[in-house]
Amino acid sequence: MKDISARELKGHNILAVERFKDSTRWMIEFVVLHPCSAYGSRGDEMRLFLAEDSYQNALQDHQRRKIKIKRYARVVEGHILDFKPGKKCTRKYRES
Known about the structure:
This is DUF5720 domain-containing protein. It contains 1 helix and 5 strands; from the N terminus they run βββαββ. It is of the alpha+beta class. Strands 1-3-2-4-5 form a 5-stranded mixed β-sheet, covered by helices on one side. A hairpin with a 2-residue loop joins strand 4 (about 65-75) and strand 5 (about 80). The longest helix has 12 residues, at about 50-65. The protein starts with 9 loop residues before the first strand and ends in a 15-residue tail after the last strand.
């Protein structure tokens, strides 16, 4: 089985316009686990660049086991920082 970084992912490509938006704060790479997920079909491997509120929604879906986040990183002014391959998503959802 190939590493997730070596495969083409659905969603946003690495140079997507969404990466460079002022509101973008996170990049996640994940696998869709639940067939009724809003992200895609079961088994799809995806990459998304997200604002903070969308990232919190993705964390909730990860906790509900609708998706499995494989990798995540902070995005600052289009730069991907603190890329942690294989690091588990341990950030807790904060209620606003």
